[in-house]
Every structure is written in structure tokens, then in C-alpha cells.
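Hypothesis: this fold can be encoded by more than one sequence.
Test: take the C-alpha cells below, design a sequence, compare later.
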């Protein structure tokens, strides 16, 4: 039996990290060096996996210090960008993960959290529609998937066998990155193809916005205060805590400096009123709807549909293969307000995707347990 050569993990430069990302079809926007600059409360480090001298994988590690001691939780949001498929087929995930654990341990980590962008299950549009119409079904996890991946099953088995803790089953949106997302496939499709896949309500709302004279334009850093004012209005209406303006200014500065296409701001105006605004992130062939805001007034002009349609058209023009509408919850219960979010996204004709989720490895069980308790008390 032949064994694959051992891999090593060590810090890499920003330039090496960006070159490795550019050589891939895509990685998560949260695995770019710019994201390390956005998360100012964490210490960021670019790392690489090496097979001898060849760089074969990359990741952004964020280190969060525990209170009063110089020990850290190491976190790779939606990462790392390694060859998960080959690790699944060969059953040798330890070859990739063991040197990562050794590295973060040498940096003072008491725990490690990964969020691999490994797809485990996919539910097609028709399956979701039928599930929403069935009063006996209240959870996505109870709906048989249209596709279940062997890569996802293998990686989950290997992580569990190595002592990693799987993501907890949660109601609503949990802390961290969403395990369930909604995606619209774009590969080989024209705007007309995509529009035909929208449901009747979406097509009608796009026409309504056009007829009402809603115009969608790209914004600049100077437009961020106007976006933020609308976002704060949305937060108050929908009952969530908004991020401060400085967060978006920092994100804009870091991401536009890294790559011009990394972030884009969209503004939908009706007459002189800003009625909707969004941000879109892009790395390679994957585009993400990131933050959205809409006015309480003038909802009848359908600015939110108009701005989404413009983002989708731009993603197609940019050669993107996936337009990602980001998180959905596991609920299919019509009495749950989150079900409305799924219905809105379902209208695009896309499908629901389940990722492997965020897995935790307690390196020091005592410190990990204490930090976990501290975070729960804070929230």
C-alpha cells in the first residue's frame, strides 16, 4: 500500500495567498486576506499547505483571544481551501488536518473551528415547494434530498472519528456561518434563461419595478452612509442589531484594495428616494448577496426585486457560475417568520444547499469548555 507524502503547514505571504486563490475557480470571500482585515477583533494569519515545496492548499486563520490569558480559538470561516474531494476519496483527511492542528497549537490555540465549503445535500426547487406545501413537514432536515454527496459523508465520518464536534442542530440562525444556503446556478445560462426560471411573482415584481421607474446603480465609498441609514431602518423594522457604519467602510476599503471586483454596492432609487440597497461579494466564479436593506415606504415599487435582478445579471456578465443568496434556516413551518425568507429566495428558481457546517476540535478541553461558557453568557 502506498502512502501519500506528508504535508506541512506554515504561514505564507499575502501575495502567495492571493496567487493561490486566483489559481482556483473560487474560494469563500471569508477566506481572503481582505477578510482578515475586516475582522479587526481577531488576529489574522494566511497559511499554506505544502507538499515538499509545492503550495497545495491555503487558508485564512482568525485567532480570537480568550479573556485574561494569551490563548486563542483558531477559526477558519468557510475554509480552508484544500482538496477535500481527494481527502474524502483516499480517506486520508488526517494528512491535511493534523499539520493544521499542530500549527495552530504552536500559535497558542486551545481550540480549532473549521467551516469547510463541502456540500453534503441539495434540495431542488420543486422538492422545496412540495415540502412547504405539506403541513406535516416543518424541517428541511426531514425532507429527502435530491442529492447527497459521498464527499460530504466521508469528510463528516473522518472528522467525527478524529474527535471533532459536529455543528449543533439549531433553530433559526445560529452564531457563525450558515450551514444551509440558497444558490442560483448560472453556468451556461443567459439572463433570459434565468428570468424564465423565476416564478410568476418575481417576474411580475421585476416588471413592476421597471414600469415604476426604479433605477439601479453601482455605488462608491461615498454612498456607504446612505446605504447604512437604510440598513439601520431595516434592522429596526426586522428586529436585528445592525453593524456600525465603520464596519462597512472597513470592508469596502479592504476588499476594493485587494481586488476591484471583490465587493460592489448597489443602490435602487425611485424618483429621489433610496428604496433598496445591497452589497455583493465575488471571488472567481462565485458571487454572494452579502447585506441588504429596503425602505419601509414605497414597498410597492419592488426595489428589492429590482436590485437582486441587477446583481444576478451582473454576476452572469462577470462569468459567475453561482449566485449565492446566502443563509436560510432549517424551518419549513409557515408560522415561522424565517419561512418567508425561503419563499422569497425560492422564487428565483434556485435550490437549497447544505454544507458540512462548522466543526470544533477542543485542543485543551478545559480552556475550550471555559471559553464556550464565556461566549454563551455574552450572547
Amino acid at each position: 500500500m502506498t502512502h501519500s507524502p506528508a504535508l506541512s503547514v506554515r504561514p505564507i505571504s499575502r501575495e502567495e495567498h492571493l496567487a493561490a486563490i486566483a489559481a482556483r475557480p473560487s474560494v469563500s470571500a471569508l477566506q481572503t486576506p481582505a477578510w482578515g482585515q475586516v475582522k479587526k477583533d481577531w488576529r489574522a494569519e494566511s497559511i499554506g499547505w505544502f507538499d515538499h515545496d509545492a503550495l497545495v492548499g491555503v487558508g485564512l486563520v482568525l485567532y480570537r483571544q480568550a479573556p485574561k490569558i494569551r490563548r486563542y480559538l483558531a477559526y477558519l470561516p468557510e475554509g480552508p481551501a484544500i482538496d477535500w474531494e481527494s481527502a474524502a476519496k483516499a480517506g486520508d483527511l488526517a494528512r491535511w488536518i493534523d499539520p493544521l492542528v499542530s500549527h495552530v497549537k504552536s500559535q497558542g490555540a486551545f481550540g480549532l473551528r473549521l467551516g469547510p465549503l463541502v456540500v453534503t445535500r441539495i434540495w431542488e426547487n420543486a422538492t422545496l415547494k412540495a415540502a412547504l406545501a405539506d403541513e406535516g413537514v416543518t424541517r428541511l432536515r426531514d425532507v429527502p434530498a435530491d442529492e447527497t454527496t459521498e464527499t460530504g459523508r466521508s469528510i463528516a465520518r473522518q472528522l467525527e472519528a478524529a474527535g471533532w464536534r459536529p455543528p449543533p442542530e439549531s433553530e433559526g440562525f445560529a452564531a457563525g456561518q450558515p450551514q444551509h444556503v440558497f444558490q442560483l446556478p448560472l453556468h451556461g445560462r443567459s439572463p433570459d434563461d434565468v428570468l424564465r426560471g423565476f416564478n410568476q411573482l418575481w417576474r411580475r415584481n421585476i416588471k413592476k419595478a421597471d414600469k415604476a421607474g426604479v433605477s439601479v446603480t453601482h455605488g462608491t465609498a461615498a454612498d456607504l452612509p446612505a446605504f447604512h441609514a437604510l440598513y439601520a431602518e431595516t434592522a429596526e423594522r426586522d428586529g436585528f442589531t445592525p453593524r456600525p457604519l465603520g464596519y462597512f467602510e472597513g470592508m469596502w476599503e479592504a476588499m476594493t484594495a485587494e481586488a476591484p471586483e471583490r465587493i460592489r454596492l448597489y443602490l435602487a432609487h425611485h424618483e429621489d428616494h433610496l428604496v433598496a440597497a445591497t452589497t455583493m461579494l465575488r471571488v472567481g466564479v462565485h458571487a454572494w448577496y452579502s447585506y441588504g436593506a429596503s425602505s419601509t415606504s414605497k414597498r410597492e415599487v419592488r426595489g428589492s426585486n429590482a436590485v437582486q435582478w441587477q446583481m444576478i445579471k451582473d454576476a452572469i456578465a462577470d462569468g459567475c457560475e453561482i449566485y449565492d443568496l446566502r443563509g436560510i434556516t432549517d424551518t419549513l413551518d409557515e408560522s415561522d417568520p424565517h419561512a418567508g425568507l425561503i419563499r422569497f429566495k425560492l422564487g428565483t428558481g434556485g435550490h437549497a444547499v447544505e454544507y458540512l457546517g462548522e466543526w470544533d476540535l477542543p485542543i485543551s478541553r478545559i480552556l475550550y469548555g471555559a471559553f464556550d461558557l464565556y461566549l454563551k453568557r455574552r450572547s
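The first strand starts at residue 8 and ends at 11. Residues 120 and 152 are 4 Å apart (CA to CA).
Hypothesis status: open.
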